[in-house]
Structures are given as C-alpha cells and as structure tokens.
Design goal:
heterodimer; A: 307 residues; MetI-like fold; 77% helix; B: 541 residues; alpha+beta; D-Maltodextrin-Binding Protein, domain 2; Dipeptide-binding Protein, domain 3; 2 domains
Chain lengths: 307, 541
C-alpha cells in the first residue's frame, strides 16, 4: 500500500509540473502585452508599461521567468495581486473554505440523489419510476446550471420565500447552491448506477442470495449496490473536478464567496496573478482528490490490492 | 453590463476631473418625507454588482470602491449644484494671483475614526502618499496633479504649492480619492490599509467578508458633515452593508425578497418592474455628469473626414429606437458633447442641430456627391461608403449597439463594418486612428472634459482626431478662467463647434439607477451622482 502510494504520488509530479507550465504560459497566451492588458486604458502611458514590465520581470527570457515562477511556488508564494496589492495566497485562503464546503455539499447531493434515482430505476426497470428517474437525469445533464440556479431563486426565494438567494453561512444558504451544483453530477451518477445495477442484478450471486431467502432489501443494498459502486466511485472522482469547476458559475449566480468567483472577478479585472494562483491551486486539489479516490477502491472492494 | 463599460473608463474620467460631495439631489425631505416619521437607527443593505479590489481611497481606480469609500471619507472641499467649490474639512483658503499656491485653514476638533486628530500634518501626509509612486495610485494621483509639495504652518494651516496653475485643481480636491487618511492607521496597517481604511467620515469599516460583503458602522463621534447634507452630528443608520451580487436577475430578486433594501445599477430590463410598484419601491435615477454614452467620429480617416458623412450619421441614427430596444427606455436621449446634467451643458444641442430623419441624412449625402450604388450602398469617386466601427469585445453592450447602428445606417446607404477588438488593441487602434467611429463614455463634473476629448492632443481620449487652433485656444482659455459666467460662455461656444463639426454621436445620457424599498428616505447624491447614506433613514410605514 505504501509503495503504491509513493508511486502514485510520484506520478502526480509531472501532472503538477504540466499544470504550472500551462498556468505560467496562460499569461503569455493572452493576446497583447500582459503589462498593457493589466494597465488597460492607462497602457497609453508607455513609461507605465515599461515600469510594469520591469516589475513583473517580463523582460527576462521565458525560461528564466518560468524558473522564478516555479521557485516562488515552491516557497508557497503565489505572487501579489497587481490591483489589490495583497498576497494571492491570502486572497485565496479567505475564500477557499467556502468553495470546499460548497463542493462537498454538491457532491453529497450528487451521490445521494444519483444513487437513489439509479437504484429506483434499476429495481423498477421499465416502469414509470424508471422512466421518470431517467427523464429527470436527462434534465440534469442537459440543463445549464446557471439557468437551474435562476429557476431555484425564482421559485424558492422569490415566490415561496423558503431560502435566501445570496450569501454564505448557515444551511439555508447552502441548499440551493448545493442542489444546483450537484444536480448535473447526480444525473450522471444515476445513469451509471442504473446500468451497473442492472448488470449485477442479473449475475449468479444475486440469484443465490435471493435463493437463500434473503430479504430483497438486503439483496439490493448489501450485495448488489456494493458491487455496483466501483465504477460509480471512479465517476465521483471525475465529477469532483467538474463540480470544482462548476462553482465558478454557482458562486456567481448565488453571490457566494469562493475560489470560482475569485477567478471570474480577477479575469474581468485582468488581475492575472490571482487567476494563475487560483487555477494552480484548483488543479492541485483535483489531482489530490483523484488520488484519494484511487485509494478508496480498496475500502469498497477488498479484491483490489495495491502494488 | 452597463456598469462595466462605465467602469472600464472610470479611471479616465477621474483623471479628468472628479469632485465628491455636492450636487443637490436628495430623496425624501419635502414630498416623500412627509409620509412617515423618521426612525433612529436601522441597517441598510445595498446590493452592488462587483466587489471592489481595495478601499484605500488613494489607491483605488474603481467607481464601486469610491461609492463605498465616500461614506467613510470626507474631503477638504465639495462642489455644489452650481459647480462651485465649497468648504468642507477645509474651512477656508486663499490662493496667490497666479493660482500656484494655496493656503488652507482646516476645521479644528475633528478626529479620524480611529480617534487620532485630523490636522495639517495628516493632509500633507495623505497627499505626499498619493504622489509617492510606491502607492501606485490609480486615480487620486490624477485628481491631485499638479500638486508639487506642501508645508505645515501649524496644526490647522497648510501651504500647498502647485507646479503650474490649474483652474480645476481645487474642484478636484472634492474627490473622495484625495480624502485625508489617518497617518497612524497607515503606519500600523501597512499594505492591509486597503482592507480597513481610516478617514474622517460618518461611517467606519466594521467588516469585509471577502467576495461577499463590506459593512460600515456608524461613527458616533462624527462632527464634520458638509453643509450640503442639511444634517449635523452622527448618522442616523447604525450600519450600511454592501452585498456583492454579480448576477442581474438575482440582484433584483434580493430587493424583492428583502435580502437587500436597495440595489445599485438596476438592470435596464427591471426598471419597469420597479416603476410599476411605487408602494414597494422607489426608483432614483440621477444623471451622471460627463459625456453621454457616445461614438467619437474620426475626422482624419476616409470617409468620415467628409463632414457630410459625419452629419449624415448624426441625422440618420435613431437614438430613441436604440434606447427603447436595448435599455427599455431607462435612459434619456443623448444631450450633446456633455450630458444634460453636467454643469455648463447646452441643453438639447444635439437634436436641435440634427433632428433625426433618414430623409435629412440622405439629402446631406446626395448634396455631397455620395450617389446610391450597388446593394444600396452609396458611392463617391468609385469608393463605397464604408464605415469601420471599433467594437471593444470585452463589453457586450458595444456589440449590441454596433449592430443596431449597422442596421439603421444601412437605410441611408452606409455599410458599417464592426471591427471587434479586445481591450488593449482597441485602445491602441483608437490612439492610432485607423477606424471611423468608436464608442465610449466619460465621467466628469467639469466642462474641461471638452478639452480632454476634442483638443489637439488634449488627452488619450481625443478619438475624433480633431485639430482646430481656434477650438484649442477656446478650451485652453476655459481651463485658465475661474469666473463661472465667462467659463459658461466659453464652453457654450466649444459645444457648438463640436456639434457643428459633427465630432460625436451621442446615444444616451448616462444615469445612476438606484432602487430602494419605499420606506427609505434621505439618500443624498453628490455632484458625481454617487449616493451618500449619511443622512439616510427609514420611515415607519
């Protein structure tokens, strides 16, 4: 197990380096001079542009600039916001917990809702329950989340007054954003669970379990579900990344603090240092989560051994 | 969306001339105030679209930042509704005849909100801080120029030297961006000062929740409001919170649900909803001083180097239809080179000279020798009447406007080509002048903006690329003259030249749209049309 962990950790290193390279190049792929982009209308002042280029080290060769960039990252320094004059680390640190909770809550919604819908559809295959579950799943996959978010605000804030539309803190402000975020992933998981369950419910060991006289409840939840969950778990790992990306939209719609909102605001203001830092950290989380998911296979399926 | 365009040009506007408190627009009072008794205390929650980057008045270059800051930071002077400079934290001042040296006499017994004394040393410290390149001031530095240095005579007297005379320097001191800050707080907080600024003002910072809200709390010791507020002592409200809600629909919804008590930048499509329910809401629409949202017409590039083409554009564009289609009639018609609310604006000059009508546009073009050609596009000397429009792709509004112009001007035989450019190349192209028309808007409280926009090398915004020695002489004189009557006459002539030469196509006058619940009164709008909540209160319904 330990050996596998080391190997997996080592294999994550090239991924992270690739990410740093992309994030670094992002600044240079923006059309036009980065310094001019940042200065906006003030870029007409050529001395200001020259000063900023100097300050940002843009006159150095690309490789040297990348070296500095990597060195800073290793020291935990993601740079300073050009506009706010604050450390990017500090800015991210202030909003990260909020995004983390939102993603977890969204994932919770996705897993619980997805699994329940999937099981219902599989167990009652070809009934109205199956059809409506899958129609719901289709909606979830195809509905843009900002639209779902606006619909929820309209219905549950404006018409019914159940939940506040904006802000963070307290479960009542979490319900709508988490549901909006998790709904799309729930749909994916539901379809997967259904397919996986249908396959497993036809296998011999289920027939044996039923023949032993076990209750249907026990057959489904203890025997079938546990086996059906392996592919789902992989999907959850992938979906986590999608959810993390989805917070960009959700945080903007529901006016929640978070790393997605920070990225959007910073892009609008051309505060590239902040965009770089936030994207880099998000990528690192994504890699870390996938690692955790791989590790957790063993907990669910003892047949999987790490070498 | 509108805010972003305006916001993108804010720095420019401030660079020209920004004065903070003044004006005379106040809600409540007379008519509305009578409906209920004022309540002491209460909390006001205002929905604002975007979170400001910093609340350091000396650093910020953003309108949304300044809107919060001016509720915490008093200035030395303010501009009243006649555009005249009035005393605020400075009780009085003298200037030398050349206008290069000022002596300020400051109010005594005034304290910063951290309890440290407000004095001449603090003003000197603040202004030197603005000029210090390390501060990286984005707007205050433009307002303070041509400030050179200052000398503390005693605690309440400050002598200031300018590097050259300026008729608008004193007025610029009304900008909240040049407000004095507490030197003790700057030293203590360092680069965190922008997160919790300390000024002299009715409110002080209580909490800034990152990407969520900023809350100011009542300063009980406040004793220095400007006379314009018509109120003395500490503010009525206990707290004012700005919540940052980027999504237009959601921001409007929070006003309906009561999560906010007021929202800034009411999206145009919702203006009708607010107006429809006066029992519940009050719509405050206060025109911004400065230019309308407008298109500058390039006089140096074919075919707009032909005045007939420029005039035909002005006749041919149906601005009323544009305002109806894109903005649900929320904005008034473009006034002229300056919005109608700007001091010194010649009211209605645009449509007086150029009544809208395709027939008039066609007549001008026919007369100038532009004959209808293939596909309905006019031709002269074998060249098609093609107009290149620079469109800033970062701002969707410019694209929508461009398409409407394209459709409208096709009817008079012009072929508009929309050239989409991202922000930086857009500025570069405007400076270079390889286009025919380009959209913009500028905030400014002083007609000196006419110099910045149309004088030869007047600023970086002379996108009509107009050169006329008589005009240059006129606006230079305006900048030197301090007598308001003379200035009015000068700028009247300047506006006439701009319109007769057809240098600009005004689309609509920019308006600050603020919606509140109807039981909120006493919001004061300054000369910049920015709201102050010092004298704001709730009435019992």
């Amino acid at each position: 197990m330990l050996g596998y962990l080391t190997k997996r950790l080592a294999s994550a290193v090239p991924v992270i380096i690739g990410v740093t390279l992309l994030v670094f190049l992002m600044l240079h792929m923006v059309p036009g001079d980065p310094a001019e982009q940042m200065l906006g209308e003030m870029a007409v002042d050529k001395t200001a542009v020259a000063n900023l280029r100097q300050q940002m080290g843009l006159n150095d060769p690309l490789a040297v600039q990348y070296g500095h960039f990597l060195g800073n990252i290793l020291h935990g320094n993601l740079g300073t916001s050009m506009l706010a004059h604050r450390s990017v680390m500090d800015m991210i640190g202030k909003v990260l917990p909020s995004t983390f909770y939102l993603t977890l809550a969204g994932l919770g919604v996705a897993i619980v809702l997805g699994t329940l819908l999937g099981i219902a559809a599989a167990v009652r295959q070809n009934t109205w329950l199956d059809t409506s579950s899958m129609v719901l799943a289709l909606l979830g996959v195809s509905m843009p989340s900002f639209w779902l978010g606006l619909l929820l605000v309209f219905t549950f804030s404006l018409r019914l007054g159940w939940f506040p539309a904006t802000g963070s803190g307290g479960w009542e402000r979490m319900v709508m954003p988490a549901f909006t975020l998790g709904f799309g992933a729930a749909a994916v998981i539901a379809r997967l669970v259904r397919a996986s369950m249908l396959e497993i419910l036809r296998l011999d060991f289920i027939r044996v379990a039923r023949a032993k006289g076990l209750s249907e409840h026990r057959v489904i939840y203890r025997h079938a579900l546990k086996n059906a969950l392996i592919p789902v778990l992989t999907m959850v790992g992938l979906e986590f990344g999608r959810l993390l990306g989805g917070t960009v939209v959700i945080e903007t719609v529901f006016a929640r603090p978070g790393i997605g909102r920070l990225i959007v605001d910073s892009i609008l203001k051309k505060d590239f240092q902040v965009v770089q830092g936030a994207v880099l950290l998000s990528a690192v989380f994504y890699v870390a989560i996938n690692l955790l998911v791989d590790m957790s296979y063993a907990l669910i399926d003892p047949r999987i051994r790490y070498q | 969306m509108r805010r972003r365009i305006v916001g993108s040009l804010l720095t420019a506007a401030v660079a020209l001339s920004v004065t903070a408190c003044g004006g005379g627009n106040s809600t409540g009072d007379s008519a509305q105030g009578a409906s209920g008794a004022p309540q002491q205390g209460g909390k006001l929650i205002v929905g604002m679209q975007y979170e400001p980057v910093t609340l350091d008045p000396h650093v910020t270059g953003q309108a949304n930042g300044i809107r919060i800051i001016l509720n915490m930071c008093d200035s030395l002077v303010y501009a009243d509704d006649k555009g005249q400079v009035q005393p605020w934290l400075a009780e009085s001042w003298e200037a030398n005849p050349e206008g290069t040296a000022y002596t300020f006499h400051l109010k005594k017994d005034v304290k910063f909100s951290d309890g440290t004394p407000f004095n001449a040393q603090a003003v000197k410290f603040s202004w030197d801080r603005i000029m210090d390149p390390k501060t990286a001031s984005q707007s205050a530095i433009s307002a303070l120029r041509p400030y050179k240095e200052s000398q503390v005579v005693d605690d309440s007297t400050l002598k200031v030297t300018l590097s050259e005379p300026s008729a608008i320097w004193l007025k610029n001191l009304g900008a909240a961006t040049t407000a004095p800050v507490s030197p003790a707080a700057v030293q203590k907080l360092g680069d965190q000062f922008g997160r919790s600024p300390v000024c002299v003002g009715p409110f002080k910072l209580k909490e800034w929740k990152e990407k969520e809200s900023v809350t100011l709390v009542r300063n009980p010791d406040y004793n220095s409001p400007s006379p314009a507020f018509g109120q003395k002592g500490a503010p009525v409200l206990d707290e004012v919170t700005w919540k940052f809600i980027p999504e237009n629909q959601v921001r409007f919804s929070t006003l309906e649900t009561g999560e906010t008590n007021a929202i800034e930048d009411v999206p145009a499509p919702f203006v009708a909803n607010v107006k429809a329910d006066p029992q519940k809401y009050t719509l405050l629409n206060v025109p911004y001083p400065g230019s309308p949202r407008q298109y500058m017409i390039n006089t140096k590039q074919f075919p707009t180097d032909d005045i007939a083409v420029r005039q035909a554009i002005l006749y041919g564009v149906n601005t009323k239809a544009i305002i109806k289609t894109l903005y649900a009639d929320a904005f008034p018609d473009g006034n002229g080179p300056m919005g109608a609310a700007t001091w010194g604006a010649s009211k209605g000059i645009f449509r007086e000279l150029y009544p809208q009508g395709a027939d008039k546009a066609n007549a001008v073009l026919d007369q100038a020798g532009w004959k209808p050609g293939p596909g309905g596009i006019r031709v002269k000397d074998g060249k098609r009447l093609e107009i290149v429009v620079n469109v800033m792709s970062d701002v969707p509004e410019y694209g929508e406007l461009g398409q409407l112009l394209q459709a409208q001007l096709r009817d008079v035989g012009m072929d508009l080509k929309l050239k989409s450019l991202s922000r930086s190349p857009w500025y570069a192209s405007n400076a270079k002048g390889d286009y025919n028309i380009t959209g913009m808007g500028l905030w400014s409280t002083d007609p000196d903006m006419l110099k910045s926009l149309y004088r030869t090398d007047g600023s970086v915004f002379t996108w009509s690329h107009f050169t006329n020695p008589d005009y240059d002489k006129l606006v230079d004189e305006g900048a030197r003259t301090s007598d308001p009557t003379k200035r009015l006459e000068i700028y009247k002539q300047a506006q006439e030249i701009v319109m007769k030469e057809a240098l600009v196509l005004p689309i609509y006058d920019q308006v600050n749209l603020l919606a509140t619940q109807s039981n909120i009164k006493g919001i004061f709008f300054d000369a910049n049309a920015y709201p102050h909540f010092y004298a704001t209160y709730y009435v019992k319904k």
